C-alpha cells in the first residue's frame, strides 16, 4: 500500500502561476464544477495567504487544516483495474514515458491519471454549503502547485505508486500479451510469404461467341435512349474484342437499340 506523504505549509504570498498542463487540468476539474466563481477567486487568494497548514497526500485524497480550525479533504477516485492495465500498457510503449515521469513531466499518454470534471470530491468542516467552499478551493490550488512540481503524486492520489508502475512495466515487458508476442514473429512470417513461388495464373475464360445482348433498362428522363444503348453496345463490344486475342478489335457501326 502506498504510504501517505506530508508537505510543509506554503508560506505567505506564495501565489504561483501554473505552467504545466496537468496542474492546470487539476484546477480546471475543480473550477468547472464550482457553483460560484467568486468562491474560487477567494480560494485562490486564501491559497496565497499562508492560512493552510501542512498538506498530507495519501491514497485517494489530499488533506489539510485551514486556520487550525477547518479540516479539508479532496477525495479522488482510485484507478480501476482496467484503467490501471491501460496505463501500464501505455507507459510500456515507450521507455521515455516512465523516464519523463521520473523527471517531473507527465506525458500525454498517461493523462488518465489526471482527474476530470466531477472527479474531485471536496469536503470541509466549515458551514459553507458550496462544493467546493472557499477553503477546499484553496487546498485544490495548493495541491495543484505540488502536482506541478511532482506529477508522480497523481499516482498516489489514484491509489498507486511510482514503484508499482515501475514493477508493472517490467512485468509487462517480461510477459507481453499474446497478441504482442505473436506480432514479434510477423517479420519471419512475411519473409516466408514473399519467398513462396508465384502460383500460375488460372486459364482465361473462353471468348464470348454468342449474340450480343444488352440489358433493357429504362433510360432516365432527358437521356436519348438510342445514344445510351449505342454507347453501351460499343463499350461491351470493345471489351469482348480485347478479351478475345483471336479476333481483331471491331466496333459496330450501328446497333439497333431496344426501346
Automatic annotation (TrEMBL):
Coiled coil start-end: none
InterPro entries: Znf_SWIM
Signal peptide limits: none
Domain SWIM-type: 110-144
Keyword line: Metal-binding, Zinc, Zinc-finger
Protein name: SWIM zinc finger family protein
Gene source species: Kutzneria chonburiensis
Lineage: Bacteria, Bacillati, Actinomycetota, Actinomycetes, Pseudonocardiales
